[in-house]
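[Discussion] Sanity-checking designs against the backbone

I'm trying to build intuition for which residues belong where. Below is a structure token string of 517 positions. I'd appreciate it if someone posts a full sequence so I can compare it with mine line by line.
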């Protein structure tokens, strides 16, 4: 077995583990002692064992080095809304100051490995379902178990799609640069348990997006509408039909396919207020943005988030609160940029906005005031859910797509944009005399002006949730300067930091892999 694949393939071999696995700062994962494994041939023998494997799929995606924390942090600190405080090379310093290279282990290597481990786990599970079809027609499986298998297959495909999409945002050029023609990722769709198929050329960005959409379309057709009105946790932490739809709006927005964004969003966003999903989980904006991030973080606004417990934590130096909260809750690795270009200095981020007054904490010292993000309030053992997508994002994606296709005065787009704005800028109570008018965006005179307003609202609304880098890159915008760190141009040939390098481990052992240059 080739050494660069060892960690990924070790992860893949754990398909038969009937327990969760978390990969973060754990060197023993290279040579684990399997104490809770069943032989591969029996892990599909009972409904309970199959379900445990489904749960394990989620554990691979929500690992701290991937979508359990690090991915969201990397996607935000690349831009200019956060300033590094600690100069700690382990906690995204190279990501923040754009000094990554092919041998950067803590970020470039580890995120790639975690992403492909999650993908391979999905592939192994899908192959296992196919190979064990005959078992599902007999005892101890119930008569209707084929429907359950279809759901589990859909969950695996959705998680594979989410993993590929997330990797694309860092390791490949945006789809909008060349209409998907640039080098993408090795598109691994078969289960790997050794290094036999290690050599695999990169598919184009467009080809990877095509697979992502195929997975999401398939998932939408077979996922449950809901896990039940009383299943608040599962409706947030397990994929359902609206999860696939919501993720498709993000994917199509990244591709610049705005008519497709509108088509998908229309499935779960009404044409006029109140904006409540008409089918499946009844997603809507929560009246309080603060409540969205208050434990247990399971409001109807949350479409998909990954949960943690004291026994199932993100792992050392992966936790969102560790990065963004100061001592004694976290470690204050990053504080909010209060200088030129930072979000706190943007006039569109009102001083009375609840997202500023409730989700940002000022810390006063002898040298001045430092501002920290307070979206993730729970300290040790760090049980905040890691957000993936919220209903507010679908609303703003639909608003942007309609502005771009219908025009700057489109009433639905304006209403969606103002709904998100006004949720955090409510009319004061008790009512003033004369009455205070609602906060609204001014009438837009151009599409560019309207789109800029949406991008600003997204920047404020999803601060610290891993959306900023996606928005910059899909629009082929520079990664802005901050502090002493220069901007990164999307077009300057001398500036090769716009996307991440391919890990040297992949380049050394996949003879068909090419560099990002």
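Best answer:
Here's mine. Compare freely.
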């Amino acid at each position: 077995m080739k050494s660069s694949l060892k960690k990924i393939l070790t992860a893949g071999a754990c398909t038969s583990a009937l327990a969760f696995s978390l990969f973060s700062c754990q060197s023993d994962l290279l040579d684990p002692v399997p104490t809770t494994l069943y032989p591969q041939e029996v892990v599909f023998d009972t409904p309970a064992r199959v379900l445990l494997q489904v749960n394990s799929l989620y554990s691979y995606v929500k690992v701290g080095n991937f979508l359990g924390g690090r991915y969201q942090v990397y996607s935000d600190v690349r831009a200019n809304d956060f300033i590094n405080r600690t100069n700690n090379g382990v906690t995204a310093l190279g990501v923040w100051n754009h000094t990554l290279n092919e041998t950067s282990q803590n970020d470039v290597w580890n995120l790639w490995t975690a992403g492909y481990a999650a993908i391979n786990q999905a592939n192994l599970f899908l192959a296992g379902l196919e190979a064990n079809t005959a078992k599902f027609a007999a005892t101890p499986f119930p008569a209707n178990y084929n429907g359950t298998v279809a759901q589990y297959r859909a969950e695996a495909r959705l998680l594979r799609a989410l993993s590929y999409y997330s990797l694309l945002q860092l390791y490949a050029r945006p789809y909008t640069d060349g209409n998907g023609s640039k080098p993408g990722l090795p598109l691994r769709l078969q289960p790997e348990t050794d290094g036999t198929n290690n050599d695999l050329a990169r598919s184009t960005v467009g080809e990877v997006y095509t697979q992502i959409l195929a997975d999401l379309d398939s998932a939408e057709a077979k996922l449950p509408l809901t896990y039940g009105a009383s299943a608040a946790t599962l409706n947030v932490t397990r994929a359902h039909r609206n999860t696939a739809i919501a993720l498709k709006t993000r994917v199509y927005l990244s591709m610049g396919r705005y008519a497709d964004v509108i088509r998908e969003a229309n499935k779960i966003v009404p044409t006029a207020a109140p904006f409540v999903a008409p089918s499946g989980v009844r997603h809507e904006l929560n009246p309080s943005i603060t409540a969205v991030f208050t434990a247990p973080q399971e409001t109807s606004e949350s479409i998909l988030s990954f949960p943690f417990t004291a026994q199932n934590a993100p792992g050392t130096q992966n936790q969102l609160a560790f990065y963004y909260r100061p001592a004694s809750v976290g470690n204050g690795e990053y504080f909010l940029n209060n200088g030129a270009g930072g979000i706190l200095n943007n006039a569109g981020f009102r001083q009375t906005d609840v997202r500023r007054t409730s989700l940002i904490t000022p810390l006063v010292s002898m040298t001045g005031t430092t501002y920290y993000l307070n979206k993730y309030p729970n300290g040790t053992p760090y049980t905040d859910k890691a957000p993936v997508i919220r209903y507010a994002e679908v609303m703003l994606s639909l608003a942007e797509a309609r502005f771009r296709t219908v025009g700057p005065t489109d009433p639905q787009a304006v209403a969606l944009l103002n709904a998100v704005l006004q949720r955090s800028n409510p009319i004061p109570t008790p009512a003033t005399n004369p009455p205070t008018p609602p906060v609204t965006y001014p009438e837009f005179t151009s599409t560019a002006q309207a789109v800029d307003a949406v991008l600003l609202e997204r920047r404020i609304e999803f601060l610290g949730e891993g959306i900023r880098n996606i928005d910059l890159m899909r629009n082929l915008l520079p990664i802005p300067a901050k502090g002493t760190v220069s901007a990164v141009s999307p077009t300057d040939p001398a500036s090769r930091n716009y996307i991440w390098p391919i890990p040297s481990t992949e380049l050394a052992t996949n003879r068909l892999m090419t560099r990002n240059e």
